[in-house]
Amino acid sequence: MEDSQPGRRPSGRPRHEASTRSGRMMLVILLGLAVCISVFLILLWPVVMSEAEQEATIRIPKGATEKNVRDSLEKYLGDDYARTVTRLARLRRTDFSKRHGSYVIAEGTNALGAMRKLTSGAQTPIRITINGFRSLPLLIDRISAKMEFPADSLRDALADPALMAGYGLTTQNAMALFLDDTYETYWTTSARDLVRKIGDNYLFLWNEERTAKAADAGLSPADVMTIASITDEETNAMQEKGTIGQLYINRLHNNMRLQADPTVRFAAGDFTIQRITKADLKKESPYNTYLHAGLPPGPIRTTSVATVDAILDAEPHNYLYMCAKEDFSGTHNFAATYDRHLENAVRYQSALDRRGITR
User: Fold this and answer.
1) With CB atoms counted within 10 Å of each terminal CB, which end of the chain scores lower, N or C?
2) 108 — alpha (psi -120 to 50), left (phi > 0) or beta?
3) Mean pLDDT of the chain
4) What pLDDT, on a 0 to 100 scale, did the predictor assign at position 17?
5) How far is CA 308 from CA 63, 150, 175, in A?
6) Measured between alpha carbons, how far is residue 106 from residues 54, 59, 76, 78, 250 in Å?
């Protein structure tokens, strides 16, 4: 019979087994951590760390497929980035045929952020800036290049008499609708909806107060837009615009032809002409205000709210003539009589001669 002594420690085997179990558990934890890290590196690392190397606009047309979107991503941001984004979109079961729109992926956006952008349906607005366009066809082409609709759609909308009549305009003076400004819209906006959006800005300009000021001068809003367009071509000096606009109004009230050189340049299709010749003055065009009385059919360029207000708020004067200053400062000498105007014109012509400017 073995002695059993109180307080004697049990055999060391249980402690060894506990230590072994503890080591195995630690090994399992480390292996699990390694697996998690491996999964992260394999699956999540490209998602988190792949970034757009540049800003890119991804346009998703109607009825687009995943391949359409991937091709677009690949074109601008590379194959690896495109593959990762479309894989993520697939996990979200995105139907790209319902994500019609234009989306800007900012430089540095990771693949997850790009996927969220493209699958959210929240388009990025685009900006259309209008500033001093001298040709409606050119304006139509420039705007349409930023939109999904073709140029013909916008051309047709502006050629619709009923649509233009809603703004007090005709198809001939439709360019008056386009104020120099920046407009925000979506790539998917239709041509007619864009015209309505731009038209809302035109109607906001021509509120009751401005319309009443135009009426006091015997003019319609469309008339003022045409005068403002000629004024903008005459000078960049804001301090002169009211004076020049009022001068043309004076000529209209005195039944005088405007004889505005910018309208001759418009008729010739050449705004670089510095010296108007007799041949230019004889060019047949409804825009040649040397040949035809009254205002031309419409604006010769887009104009601004600032110019319109300068004309409407101009102080009355009796000037009927103007001539560019001989110092080529871009400003003008004004005259109330033809004799004084001839003196101003001789000085300017002499300055052109000294510089050898013939055209």
Assistant:
1) N
2) left
3) 88
4) 62
5) 45, 31, 15
6) 7, 14, 12, 14, 54
Half-sphere exposure of 265 (CA within 13 A, CB side): 20
Give CA separation, 321 vs 10, 280, 311, 315, in Å. 122, 19, 16, 16
Confidence of residue 2 (pLDDT cuts 50, 70, 90): very low
Q: Which among 181, 227, 223 has a CA at the least distance from the CA of 202?
A: 181
Q: What is the pTM of this model?
A: 0.80
What DSSP string runs through 88-118?
HHHHTT--GGG--EEEEE-TT-BHHHHHHHH
62-117: pLDDT as tens digits = 999 999 999 999 999 999 889 989 988 888 889 999 999 999 999 999 988 999 99
Contacts of 64 (CB under 8 A, 6+ apart): 96, 97, 99, 100
Q: Which residues contact 332 (CB under 8 A, 6 or more apart)?
A: 234, 235, 240, 244, 322, 323, 324, 325
Question: How far apart, in Å, are the Cα atoms of 153 and each of 2, 65, 141, 147, 159?
Answer: 108, 26, 11, 11, 10
**Residue for token digits 């200053």?**
325
Cα–Cα dist 142/130, whole Å = 9
Q: What's the rounded Cα separation, in Å, for the pair 128 and 147?
A: 10
Rounded Cα–Cα distance for residues 21 and 259 (Å): 104
The percent of residues in the chain predicted with pLDDT above 90, rounded, is 66
Which residue shows structure tokens 């909806």? 193
